[in-house]
Design a protein that fits this description.
Layout lengths: L9 H16 L4 E8 L2 H12 L4 E8 L2 H7 L3 E8 L1
Length: 84
Amino acid sequence: MKVVGEIGDQGAALDVMFGYLDDWARQEDVRVGVGDADNAGMAELLAAELDERSYVVEVARYNVEPSVAVHTGPGTMRTVWMVI
């Protein structure tokens, strides 16, 4: 895990996630996973926005596992990606 920003609300969190991935991915083709713990609406928005990026070839949705969610709480969202 890597902290990529400090924010005050979920909208700002999405902006930080998009910005970091946009800067990191550049011309790479990536697969992205979007997970949430009781925050499906916001996670769906994140997944839909990522799916529109030219470098994203696949977006997978999943539930954040209890071993993480117990520490982060309800509303947690997470993105993971890999270059293919």
